[in-house]
Amino acid sequence: MMNLYFFILKYYVCNIYKKLYCWLLLVGKTKAERWAANDGHKYLKRICEQCGKEFYPNSIRQRFCNTDCTKAHQQAEKEKKRFAEKGEHTFRQKVCEICGKPFWPSNGQEVLCSGECKTINRRWKPSRTNGQACAMSLSGTTT
């Protein structure tokens, strides 16, 4: 009984190794043919997405011929994203701290949208003379 078990096991293992060996020969043959067809390169020729030159990639995911084209493409994408977000404005759109409306600041430090919000902000600042908050409403009365 034990001999029969080992015979069956040996048969299956040999069969598996035969199939693996044949598969490796087949893969090796197609690989060699592929390399010969590509002038000794692993992957097919591609065209650089940035400059349009033909090149042989080093990996399947390579899209650009060199690092200069990669950096130029990344910079162009970054500028395109910024333009989509800001348009012709220099600074990003902010939300006014007083009224909550979105506005385009003229400099990077601005946090208030209009003169009205700036006057409201000045009235609500603490008094410098006595250190107490001078809570003024829009009408200008103190509480």
Descriptive report:
The protein is mainly α and 143 residues long. The chain has helices at residues 2-37, 67-86, 115-124, and strands at 46-47, 54-55, 94-95, 102-103. The protein has a two-stranded antiparallel ribbon. The termini are far apart.
Task: Please give a quick description of this structure.
The protein is mainly alpha-helical. 46% of the residues lie in helices and 6% in strands. The longest helix is centred in the first third of the chain and has 36 residues, at 2-37.
End-to-end Cα distance, whole Å, is 103 Å
The quaternary structure here is: single chain
- How much strand content do the residues show? 5-15%
Q: Give the overall shape, derived from the CA principal axes.
A: elongated
What level of helicity do the residues show? 40-55%
Question: What is the averaged pLDDT score?
Answer: 78
Helix count equals 3
Extract low-pLDDT stretches.
129-139
Number of strands: 4
In which order are the strands of the major sheet placed? 1-2
The major pleated sheet works out as: 2 strands, antiparallel
Structural class: mainly alpha
N-to-C SSE series? HEEHEEH
| Radius of gyration over all CA atoms, rounded | 36 Å
Looking at this protein, list some descriptive labels.
143 residues; two-stranded antiparallel sheet; 6% strand; single chain; two-stranded antiparallel ribbon; 4 strands; elongated
